[in-house]
Amino acid sequence: IDNPVWDEAPSTSSGYRGSASPERSRHFVCPTCSKSFAWKKSLVMHMKIHTGEKSFQRKHCFAMHMQKHQQKKYDCRKCDRSFISLHHLNQHVRTTHPEIKLTSVKRGTASTPEGNSKRVRREGGALNTFTSTFFHPTENSKKDFLLFFDEITPQLKEKIEEEIQEKGAVKWYGVVKAVFKRESEDGGEERVTPYFRSNVQIELVGDTIGDHVPVSFSKRLEAVDEFIRRGSGWILDKVVHFELCVAKYQPLRASSYIILPKKLADKKAVLNIQNEDQKCLVWCLIAHKLNSLAHNSYRVSHYTPHEQEIKLDGVECPVPLNKIPIVERLNNLRINVFGYEENEVFPLYVSKRVDEECVNLLLIANEETQHYCLIRNMSRLLGDLTKHKTKHHYCYRCLHRFAKVEILKEHLQYCNDHSPQHIKMPAKGENFIKFQNVHYQHPLPYIIYADFESLIVKEVHTSGNTEIIARHEACGYAYVIIGPDGRSVKPIAIYRGKNAVQHFMENILKEKEELAAKLTSIVPIHMTPQDELDFRSATHCSICKKALKGDRVRDHDHQTGRYRAALHSSCNLKFRLSKKIPVVFHNLKNYDGHLIMQEIGKLKDYEISVVPTTMEKYVTFSLSKRYHKFKVSLNFIDSFQFLSTSLEKLVQNLTPDKFNILNENFPHHNMSLLLRKGVYPYEYMDSHQKFEEERLPSIDSFESTLTGSGISDEDYRHAQTVWNYFNLKNMGEYHDLYVKCDVLQLADVFENFRKLCQHYYGLDCVNLFTAPGLAWQSSLKMTDQPLELFTDINMHMFVEKGIRGGISVITKRFSQANNKYLPNFDASKNIKHIIYLDCNNLYGASMVESLPYGGFEWISADVTLDWIQSIPQDSSEGYIFEVDLKYPEELHDLHNDYPLAPEKMDIKFEDLSEFSKAVLNEMKYTPSTKLVPNLKDKKNYITYYKNLQFYLKQGLKLEKVHKILKFQQKPWLKKYIMFNTEQRKNSKSAFEKDFFKLMNNSVYGKTMENIRNRVDVQLVNDEKKAQKLELLPLPLKDLKSLIMSW
């Protein structure tokens, strides 16, 4: 290899270089790969790579590195030099040929490895704002996420580099689509196709791609683990593809002066320097250093003499948010940047540095640009100044204020585990939650049940290695409107033909207009003499159950004019009829919702809102529009979020006498043929021409490639019987009958579910969106127990850190029984039995115990071991401890199968077994967090006092008590749990048994819901608005310590 060479470093565009040494002012360039270095010794170490002299932990690491340097070449058209990546080529062009625009530099002649191009497909995105590229697995990798990610990493990095070359800076995220399978309860096979999406990454240059891609993959693997853990029993069947979504990133850079909003200026907390250039960041940093309090400190002239004191070394002005870490490093500063929107301050960038000197900047914006201001007084800015003049200390990650630096340091132990978020705690006096949504008791008068059917159109690909992908094209639908009396308002609507989703939306919006007229018309009250007597003799409000006294009003049904009850005036206002019209699909989130979303963007006159679980899946979405002075909305909800099993099983569990709507629509017919889910040849129906066929296709046509199975002979005979009984003429009529029965069966199933909810809990479930939300509101209503919410953020984070999940593992992988009841019993060997144990009502058993409800306070950690062990199991006061525990070595063998006190741990490479290391032999390992039972000593371990007592009883040693959180506890949820348990015992149908089990289990997760994971999704149907949103930084929305109902 030639001797190292160096080129003069180009001057920075800002003109500020600082005082660098002669050696520091040069770039040392590798002649082999053209990578540049600031120090000569760095180049010398780097060159050992090319000679194989650099030490690698494993031989394959060096081999992979050399392969990376040798497999592709990117040629410079100006000087014919070759480079190993587009990033190195771009770097060379910027440095050596600045006159060449990067977009004109073409890739060299080397091609990607054979076959890769066949497995990559690129598509244009919505509103012309992004592109999607699909990476498909090979036969070797489609069964293994790790192998698949490792296989596509080089192509993925190369693709992002190409996008950077084409677009400049980009934003990207990845979505993994996979198929999982598990054995169903009836012995068959159940399959699902989940999507796992990564967070958005921003790339201004190619330098960070190598860090962001592994992090993205690691997050997807964590999501897969969470899916498997929550779903129980899922096994990966195959990886379908990885979708890379890339959008051009054009951040508004902070530049010249912007006038502060009046509310912000009135706080007198921010120095807004009136510069006309693009160096507002530079002037803010100088102003911080000078700490000038002159009345005209907004003038730039104060700071220009000190301009050279700020080092930028290659960072161009205006400085984008992503370049702040470089400015920090160059100037030995800790810089935090906050945003301001709708009178709220929120963190945009919080430094990871620990420098004592900290600069806080506020980034404000108008429609054209952004501007940095210097925050002079954080207390004034956040609006929490008190009469006391004592100094306050702030956590810049969550914007909470602390009186003492010691308390702040304690807080950071918890807060550093989370991404920056503006966290708002409830104010004292407003920190109680109880049942207040009295309007949930009001049955919604109109509800629509609907379903789509689709043709599965085969996609033809010329690529031989690409798996054939089918496109789902809606070909028909049916819907039925159910009125206040539980009967159909009009005959069921059925459509079959092209543009089915568009046709559906046009018709459903017409139905909305008709129903809106009924919902917004108020029939005056009509009181009978008996009604008047009941009103005058009423002593208690029928809503809140409190005494009426002089405050009483007549409540009546606005649809009929009928008197209902005597209420308080405030209760009557809360009990108003909601102007919502639910539209119910079974599996809306995973299927029908995707079809509707393709059409919903055309509706310019409607307000569209969503409650998302991910970017792709929505729990519910609504279309709202004002009708006179009322806003009336169509609320699309998913019955699967309440009844999470197939419609076929739900129909089986409902007794025949409950199918009133089906009977109403099929009078004088043999109902036994309709009281079961029909069968349909989904994959056979791939074109509208198939509807013209005049006979039922063969049994083979009902097979599914997704499940790998078909239908039984009995199912096929049933389909033939239905065809003949209804005298069907062709497959079009079969389709119509099938979708009609589906919708009517769904209507009967869900109407019975609504009746159960109203009968046992006095709530209409369609006022909510999910079973957990329904169960939580039902429990609050039945127990009538006010629950205290935290006002101390450290208490919240303390408890949050103690939530770890549950261990579910069989550590002994194989055991063979040997006893007289087995045919292969061997009397010469030891007798051995295997027993299956299961806990009945596992969740319910934990929820009937004493649970916290209020009185939270910190108490002294100066307690004795005897005191801890003496706390009664049924104490009215509960405690959560933070302790250090020692795990004595003499217990290791005894506890080896199931160690006590499991921990969330970052699993490092050296922690893996030799087998796992071998599997990862050719892959980059990214540490991940897992819940691990282990025999290590525990530091700062957070646990409930009953658990701690058990650990100590089993032999663990208490080393230290750090903190104790005390609270009042009692079995306040027991009434609700035991009610459901008793009702389940007395249930006469499988439908009711499942219902009461659901209402118990669903409330468990709601008690510890992590609302940090909620996402804010805006649906955009305007290209200009979409492009504008892409320009904005991504603010982290407020996190409120409230238990919300979905």
TrEMBL record:
Name assigned to this protein: C2H2-type domain-containing protein
GO MF annotation list: DNA binding; zinc ion binding
Places the protein is found: Nucleus
Keywords from the UniProt entry: DNA-binding, Metal-binding, Nucleus, Repeat, Transcription, Transcription regulation, Zinc, Zinc-finger
A Pfam family that the UniProt record links to this protein: Endonuclease_7
GO CC annotation: DNA polymerase complex; nucleus
Cross-referenced PANTHER family: PROTEIN CBG23764, RHO TERMINATION FACTOR N-TERMINAL DOMAIN-CONTAINING PROTEIN
Domain C2H2-type: 28-55, 74-102
Main location: nucleus
Protein's GO biological process: DNA biosynthetic process
